[in-house]
């Protein structure tokens, strides 16, 4: 069995950067294990029509090297899935990473041996490797949520999940297509499929607030400006709680007069994108303020959608604006004005089962040639818990996290020494521009391993007390935030029936979180214990 200093699981944004710095800065022997046959992580699997990032390309890039940043030109304001996949392949080649990535290597078991202080890593293909350190760079949205609809086997049509899209794009030309799900993914895929399908039936359980992306092609001068503004953008992202390149508003919506407020909403709507939720400072904590945003979006939708029944269904919100991850779109609401598109309310009339020819709801049958599930993910913990991870004294991660994930800083788990998580549960991760959170984590982990090498430590492990204290801080950070009022949101495990219902990410902001992590490393890792073996 080949032994490595470090095994990294996953070759997305996180795994690639972690490999680069552990191998090229610390000189470690490192291998990345990747389930797919290419790099990309989430951007490998989510190749559905319309897949594109909601963060602007100039910010959704690595920032650790200005040379690397300048060597790549994005072609649109928001990068498409194929372009991000090409970008990650470019980074991989530029840094000569591919030779240390083993593809088609899905991890099934991770077992820690206390006797040897070694992790053995069992792959689904039968191979086995071992390592001193394991870094799980498995992504936060990588384990698909496929609802169990009875009688799937009798359905004659095709079934696709957006999070596991086939390499060879299926064709929907002249087909009757159904889509379940109107989250960020559904909102992207629906307008694209509507353009080609003979008929599209959208099965909506909960309407979502969406703001226009206002995507556009980037000109040569846009690209040059992004390069010139590298330092400025970097600073803005460092100080933004979500790692985005704009400043926070300090104006309350409720304290702003209606004319001014609508002017600011209009400007944000016209500008498009995720910054809409930062139009005012109190949208996520104050009812009155939140309602102004919610009503503004409702009005916009009602102005776009011609059929009033459809418009009512699309605005029948059951949660405050921003309490679920707000999507952005290109022609989502306009799509419902097409003659070939039909919106079905499955909250009122739930899906009962598949039939031979389609889907049966409580009041009708819908004939379909293909069904697309845009039903999201078992987020943040799904992929970790699906690997069988055993730590000290044979404790399994599944048992240890029975009541919810317990980590210190979302980086390390008591009883699981030398196992690090990138953007793990308890970190700001999914509430941020992911590459910023990923770079911060990978660098923290690399610095920590360097500290261990210098001090000849064998193990590092979060203490139980530090993890319990950190999870208290996670709850504290979200108190009073509307995130807690969207009961079905994946932030709360609400989309998976059997999951503990706890708020998972740290909502205190990436800026604050970075300071907390820096303070921990400066204190020689307060909250962690190190051990040395007798050989040292
Ligand atoms: P999601 O936000 O969890 O949305 C899933 C959708 O499927 C919801 O409309 C949900 O309805 C519906 N659904 C789930 N199970 C169902 C069932 N059993 N029956 C009927 N409907 C069901 O998933 P997502 O849209 O894939 O997005 C997940 C996250 O991925 C996003 O929040 C975002 O962070 C990320 N993402 C990012 C981008 C981007 O940057 N461009 C694009 C896509 C996704 P309910 O609301 O009623 O539960």
Assign the CATH architecture of the largest domain.
3-Layer(bba) Sandwich
In CATH, the topology of the largest domain is named FAD/NAD(P)-binding domain
Instruction: Note the gap between the termini.
Output: 24 Å
Strand content: 15-25%
Mean pLDDT, nearest integer? 97
Which assembly state applies to the chains in this document?
A: single chain
- What class do helices, strands and sheet pairing give? alpha/beta
CATH superfamily of the largest domain: FAD/NAD(P)-binding domain
Bound molecules: NADP nicotinamide-adenine-dinucleotide phosphate
Largest sheet: 8 strands, mixed
What does it look like?
The protein has 536 residues and is α/β, with parallel strands linked by helices. The chain has 2 domains: 2-143 and 378-531, FAD/NAD(P)-binding domain (3-Layer(bba) Sandwich), CATH 3.50.50.60; 152-222 and 245-373, no CATH class. Helix content is 31%, strand content 17%. It has helices at residues 13-24, 42-45, 66-70, 81-94, 184-196, 220-228, 230-239, 258-271, 287-304, 308-314, 332-335, 382-386, 397-400, 434-454, 464-478, 510-522; strands spanning 2-9, 30-33, 101-102, 107-113, 118-123, 128-136, 158-161, 176-180, 199-204, 211-212, 328-329, 341-345, 351-354, 358-361, 365-367, 370-373, 388-390, 419-421, 459-462, 528-531. Strands 1, 2, 3, 4, 5, 6, 17 and 18 form an 8-stranded mixed β-sheet that branches. It has a 5-stranded parallel β-sheet with strand order 7-16-8-9-12, with helices on one face. α1 runs parallel beside α14 (434-454). The longest helix is centred in the last third of the chain and has 21 residues, at 434-454. The model has no long low-confidence stretch (mean pLDDT 97). The site of NADP nicotinamide-adenine-dinucleotide phosphate has 25 residues, from α5.
